[in-house]
Design goal:
Layout lengths: L11 H16 L5 H13 L3 H4 L21 H11 L7 E7 L2 E4 L4 E11 L2 E5 L4 E2 L3 E9 L2 E6 L4 E4 L2 E3 L2 E2 L14 E9 L2 E6 L3 H22 L1
Parallel strand pairs: 1-3, 2-4, 3-5, 3-6, 4-7, 6-11, 7-12, 8-11, 9-11, 10-12
Helix pairs in contact: 1-2, 2-5
């Protein structure tokens, strides 16, 4: 059914089913460990069914049959994001780094309007575990001979509108569609002889799970060869 719905967003459960197929395949000797590592990493990065389907296309169905895909898969994503959008809360609204720096990471709430000012300093905004004070958050960055780093989780839509003068505004994540119910992050402002970078990374839990899976399977393969 994936060929009929290639752009439909995949859920965590869909990624786990594909990961299970890959684990069975490496245990049976169908995949080398190096190829397994590459496919497993691609699995946890995948956003749509179309990205997941090629990862198991050359493996026999008997290895593990994934559950039928459903148009109702998006419900889980909507619920997860709805828990992180906490309307009615002010949240954090500013960060200043002058000849120094500031950092916002871990469990925190970003306000609907956040202003980052960096003068010969730097700032880091990590939104992977953050809550959002509204469905749309505007981050205004003013970097003079300094820089602002913004990390967003998969599923969040990013709209970059900033200007760089003898500096740069990184817009590589601009225009990537968001998951249903996910917040939208607008990044604007000015970078003068400085820079603003927006980077999308896996959630910490998924990265940790990926490392643990690699370690566990390497140990199992080592035991089989002993």
């Amino acid at each position: 059914m994936t060929e009929d719905l290639p752009e439909l967003r995949a859920s965590d459960a869909d990624r786990e089913r594909v990961a299970e197929i890959l684990r069975d395949a490496v245990a049976e000797g169908r995949l080398a460990m190096e190829e397994f590592d590459e496919r497993l990493e691609a699995t946890y990065r995948a956003r749509t069914y179309g990205e997941l389907e090629p990862l198991t296309a050359d493996l026999p169905a008997a290895a593990a049959a994934p559950a039928p895909l459903s148009l109702h898969k998006d419900t889980a994503a909507v619920t997860r994001w709805s828990e992180r959008i906490v309307s009615g809360t002010d949240g954090s609204g500013a960060g200043i780094g002058i000849l120094g720096g500031f950092q916002r990471k871990g469990r925190w709430t970003i306000g609907r309007r956040f202003t980052a000012v960096c003068l010969m300093g730097g700032g880091e905004l990590d939104l992977r575990e953050a809550n959002f004070a509204g469905p749309e958050v505007v981050i205004s960055c003013w970097a003079l001979m300094g820089g602002v780093s913004i990390v967003v989780p998969p599923g969040v839509e990013v709209d970059v509108r900033g200007l760089g003068i003898m500096g740069g505004f990184d817009a590589q994540e601009d225009g990537v569609p968001g998951e249903p119910g996910a917040p939208r992050v607008i990044v604007k402002g000015l970078a003068l002889m400085g820079g603003v970078a927006v980077e999308r990374k896996l959630l910490k839990e998924e990265r940790r799970r990926l490392k643990e899976e690699k370690r566990r399977l390497k140990d199992e393969r080592r035991k089989e060869l002993d």
